[in-house]
From TrEMBL:
Keyword Oxidoreductase: yes
Residues that hold Ca(2+) according to the record: 42, 45, 50
Keywords: Calcium, Heme, Hydrogen peroxide, Iron, Metal-binding, Oxidoreductase, Peroxidase
Cofactor (UniProt): Ca(2+); heme b
The name this protein goes by in its record: Plant heme peroxidase family profile domain-containing protein
Species for this entry: Lolium multiflorum
Assigned protein family: Belongs to the peroxidase family.
Length: 124
């Protein structure tokens, strides 16, 4: 989920966006309001971890500007988005491999390490 302040510019000012998607999101995040609602990164299956996010990018329905930047400029990233949009099982497999690789990265000995009790704040 994203706060309105993080997607307001995308749904109000971006021309590279599906018009009906932008209109729906503007209802929860008006341009002239200081508040707004939350929106899911993936409207199709917001409670499931799947490849719908990539399908949304192809349809120009990426919620954040940084999301939509992953698709549409040509090159390898476009190929990956298209492949993952078609092959959900490949996305899941590649994601799992990437998570294992990231989990095996050790911080340098100079980096202070802390297991947080609450991810949003430093332990007291």
């Amino acid at each position: 989920m994203a706060n309105c302040e993080n997607y307001r510019d995308r749904v109000n000012d971006d021309v590279d966006i599906d018009a009906s998607f932008a209109e729906t999101r503007r209802k929860t995040c008006p341009a002239n309001e200081s508040y707004g609602g939350m929106a899911p990164f993936d409207e199709r299956t917001p409670m499931r971890f799947d490849n719908a996010y990539y399908k949304d990018l192809i349809a120009r329905r990426g919620l954040l500007i940084s999301d939509q930047a992953l698709y549409g400029s040509g090159g390898r990233q476009d190929d990956l988005v298209e492949m993952y949009s078609r092959k959900g099982e490949m996305f899941a497999k590649d994601f799992a491999k990437a998570m294992v690789k990231m989990g095996n990265i050790s911080p340098s000995e100079k980096t202070p390490v802390e297991v947080r009790l609450n991810c949003r704040m430093v332990n007291w």
